[in-house]
């Protein structure tokens, strides 16, 4: 855990691992530990679970961390009889400080700036996200587009989250008491903030008006009138890294609704306005934002901060998630490759442990989920995994049922090599996944994994990215090759597995004095109408046996 703050309590520090090293004295699921700490405060109903993000780029899987961590805690609390309100704030009155390199369209597909109206962004640097047009020309603003993506992702995963716009909280006057209190106690605010942020001098005013002339956020307040609820300002330049966003120099007056608090005050301000009881956040916030937010909440606003929980980031393909570097993936893209319950399972794992989501090895994640599912029904000899699975599984799936059939992901990818539904069923039955009594709806549900695995094979261009030829392709083999194929067919007909078939391919080629490459090429021609393919023997071992024998004998 990336913090040593002892005030965080036991929720994050004592949560069970969910990977096999759970302490018997604790619950089997980390969300129960968090719920315990929330209940210990005797919160008012509804209990408010919050997350939040600034809509600065692609709404990617990393942004979804807080929604899913909060979801599991919310579900545990609901199970315990509490009314729960899960909210997610879009910090959309923040200014756009730089152009993102990537965006996501309304369907969650990642696109470059060259595919949209990038000028709609470039002309509006320094303005609040809600004042910037949607570069796709569909939503009412850039912020609304981003929020809609997150809400669509939540809906895809069945998370009942309420999206809240910071801009609307200001416009509706919800923030008025917080802004007034902070400005009334500006000396205390400066003193507290000075512990965490440099350049806090006696002239610093913790409020950022929106310039009435150019629409940009400015940080220069020259006077405060608490009775009128206004501030005077000058629209000055904004420094962003090595770049400067020019102010227009306009001098004006803004109400408390025509500006915003700086983010270190705005975050605890949200806790007060929304009555937040619990908020998870990434380890970056644990090291800076949380200590300052807690301090401001207690010593400026005079409120109790919510129960916190720090989660570790996960990496993508071994590298940090980064919109600027293009190392991102969206929820929509993941659901093209995985069932929703597998993605929920990923987020149900211990949030204290760093993980890598390696798209090339999604089969491992799916295998882990399948084992987790079996453990929930007591079918795995692993006490700690079973304890975790029995507790967490009902929150991961839409419905607890024992009659599901889960095809191994790589086997599903093999089935994805053919579009012939009957052949898929025969191959799965041949491997023992179905029998004559398996209900049609169970078969159909199980085969739903096939197209996802097929898309994974195509996206990764891996050893499963081939198309099995249902009809016999054209061929022209030497007599020795044909004789060798007949011998191999006899061997397969005896019922050997894929590993044995792989070895027999080599032996058969040697017995018939055939070049190894020529014999493999013949197999690839018959099954894929191509010169190369997957590891042939193991692949043939997973196909329906009669089909393989018939094809090796070159019979229609």
UniProtKB/TrEMBL annotation:
Enzyme Commission no: 6.1.1.6
For this protein, what is any one GO molecular function term? ATP binding
GTP-binding is among the record's keywords: no
Give the matching Gene3D superfamilies.
1.10.10.350, 1.10.10.770, HUPs, Lysine tRNA ligase, stem contact fold domain
User: Which Gene Ontology cellular component terms are annotated?
Assistant: cytoplasm
Positions of short motif 'KMSKS' region: 320-324
Does the keyword Ligase belong to this entry? Answer: yes
What protein family does this chain belong to?
Belongs to the class-I aminoacyl-tRNA synthetase family.
From which source organism is this entry?
Answer: Haloferax sulfurifontis ATCC BAA-897
Which keywords does the record carry? Aminoacyl-tRNA synthetase, ATP-binding, Cytoplasm, Ligase, Nucleotide-binding, Protein biosynthesis
UniProt-recorded name of the protein: Lysine--tRNA ligase
| Disordered as annotated region, ranges | 1-25
State any GO BP term from the record.
lysyl-tRNA aminoacylation
Could you tell me where this protein is found in the cell?
A: Cytoplasm
Give the reactions, separated by semicolons, that this protein catalyses: tRNA(Lys) + L-lysine + ATP = L-lysyl-tRNA(Lys) + AMP + diphosphate
Q: Which NCBIfam families match?
A: lysS_arch (TIGR00467)
């Amino acid at each position: 855990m990336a913090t040593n703050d002892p005030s965080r309590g036991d929720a994050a520090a004592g949560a069970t691992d969910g990977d096999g090293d759970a302490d018997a004295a604790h619950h089997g699921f980390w969300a129960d530990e968090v719920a315990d700490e929330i209940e210990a405060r005797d919160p008012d109903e509804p209990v408010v679970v919050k997350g939040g993000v600034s809509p600065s780029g692609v709404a990617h899987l990393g942004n979804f961390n807080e929604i899913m961590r909060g979801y599991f805690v919310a579900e545990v609390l609901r199970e315990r009889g509490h009314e729960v309100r899960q909210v997610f704030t879009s910090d959309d009155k923040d200014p756009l400080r730089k152009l993102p390199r990537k965006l996501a369209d309304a369907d969650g597909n990642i696109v470059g700036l060259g595919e949209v109206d990038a000028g709609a962004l470039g002309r509006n640097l320094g303005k609040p996200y809600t004042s910037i047009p949607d570069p796709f020309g569909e939503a009412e603003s850039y912020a609304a587009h981003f929020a809609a993506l997150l809400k669509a992702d939540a809906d895809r995963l069945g998370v009942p989250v309420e999206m809240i716009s910071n801009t609307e909280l200001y416009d509706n006057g919800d923030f008025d008491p917080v802004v007034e209190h902070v400005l009334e106690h500006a000396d205390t605010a400066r003193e507290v903030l000075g512990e965490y942020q440099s350049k806090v001098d006696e002239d610093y005013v913790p409020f950022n008006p929106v310039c009435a002339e150019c629409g940009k956020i400015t940080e220069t307040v020259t006077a405060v009138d608490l009775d009128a609820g206004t501030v005077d300002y000058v629209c000055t330049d904004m420094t962003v890294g090595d770049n400067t966003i020019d102010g227009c120099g306009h001098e004006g007056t803004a109400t408390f609704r025509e500006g915003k608090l700086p983010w270190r005050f705005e975050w605890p301000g949200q806790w007060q306005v929304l009555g937040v009881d619990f908020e998870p956040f990434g380890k970056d916030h644990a090291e800076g934002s949380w200590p300052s937010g807690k301090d401001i909440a207690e010593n400026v606003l005079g409120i109790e901060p919510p129960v916190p929980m720090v989660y570790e980031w996960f990496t993508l393909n071994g590298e940090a998630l980064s919109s600027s570097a293009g190392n991102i993936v969206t929820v929509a893209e993941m659901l093209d490759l995985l069932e929703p319950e597998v993605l929920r399972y990923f987020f149900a794992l211990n949030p204290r442990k760093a993980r890598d989501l390696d798209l090339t090895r999604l089969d491992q994640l799916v295998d882990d989920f399948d084992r987790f599912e079996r453990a929930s029904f007591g079918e795995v000899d692993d006490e700690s995994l079973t304890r975790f699975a029995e507790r967490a599984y009902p929150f991961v799936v839409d419905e607890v049922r024992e009659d599901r059939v889960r095809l191994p992901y790589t086997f599903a990818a093999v089935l994805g090599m053919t579009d012939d539904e009957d052949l898929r069923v025969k191959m799965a039955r041949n491997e023992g996944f179905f029998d004559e009594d398996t209900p049609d709806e169970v078969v159909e549900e199980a085969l739903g994994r096939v197209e996802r695995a097929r898309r994974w094979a195509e996206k990764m261009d891996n050893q499963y990215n081939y198309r099995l030829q249902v009809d016999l392709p054209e061929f022209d083999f030497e007599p020795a090759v044909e004789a060798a194929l007949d011998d191999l067919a006899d061997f397969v007909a005896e019922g050997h597995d894929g590993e044995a078939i792989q070895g027999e391919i080599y032996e058969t080629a040697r017995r018939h004095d055939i070049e190894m490459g020529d014999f493999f090429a013949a197999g690839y021609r018959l099954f894929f109408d191509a010169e190369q393919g997957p590891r042939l023997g193991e692949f043939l071992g997973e196909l329906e046996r009669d089909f393989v024998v018939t094809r090796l004998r070159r019979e229609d």
